[in-house]
Write a structure and sequence with these properties.
The protein has a domain of 139 residues. Helices cover 8% and strands 41% of the residues. The chain is built from two helices and 13 strands; from the N terminus they run βββααββββββββββ. The protein is globular and about 55 Å long. About 16% of the residues have low confidence. InterPro entries: At4g14100-like (IPR038941).
């Protein structure tokens, strides 16, 4: 089936610019000035609904058939404990809606921010997530709190992923892994940085 959600990582940095970001009661100071129009809230909810499945994937360690041949397959590089990445997303279940997302990941402090810019929309949506499963979704017009049984993914959430081989995507030569037939994860062979990930409806594309 077609992926429910796909993201590419054109920029990936290990350092977080904390001097430009302030946290207070789980709500971050806005980096981009407010614009008068409101942003639909549906796409961030789609991302949040993926969290329980990703948590299952983080715990699952299926047997890797590639290891049976005698040579150990490549393993995914754990995420840095803190990083900033810029992602382009294509929400195929929402008519191919495009988004630009600044992801700020901070595992030591148990928090994660998705700063979401929808196509042709000036008002960003803020998705603040915590390790206790609490997420805050807000923009200039609305705010809501959602609680999930899982929180921020650990840096080694891809431990035990099944290696599928090498594949070229977006001009990068990548290693490709899957986890519980739900997420496909592409990592650049040379730099070991994430290039792309796709979330599927449980079937092989």
């Amino acid at each position: 089936g077609a992926p429910l959600y796909g993201a590419t990582f054109p920029h990936f940095r290990h350092t977080l610019p904390y001097c430009n970001f302030v946290w207070s009661v789980g709500i971050g100071r806005r980096i981009i000035p407010d614009k008068p129009q409101a942003t639909p809230m549906a796409p961030p909810l789609l991302l949040l609904l993926l969290l329980p499945l990703l948590a299952v994937a983080a715990e699952a360690v299926p047997p890797n058939p590639a290891a049976a041949g005698g040579s150990a397959p490549p393993v995914p590089t754990p995420w840095p404990e803190q990083f900033h990445a810029v992602m382009f997303t294509n929400l195929t279940e929402s008519g191919g809606r495009l988004q630009l997302i600044d992801l700020y990941y901070d595992w030591p402090r148990g928090r994660n921010l998705n700063l979401i810019h929808n196509q042709l929309s000036g008002d960003p949506t803020y998705d603040v997530e915590w390790t206790n499963g609490t997420s805050y979704i807000f923009d200039s017009a609305s705010c809501r709190t959602i609680r999930f049984p899982v929180g921020v993914l650990p840096p080694d959430w891809l431990h035990g992923a099944v290696y599928l081989g090498r594949e070229s995507t977006d001009g990068f030569d990548c290693h490709l892994w899957t986890k519980v037939d739900f997420v496909w994860y592409y990592e650049d062979v040379l730099t070991h940085r994430p290039v792309r990930w796709n979330f599927f409806n449980g079937t092989t594309p």
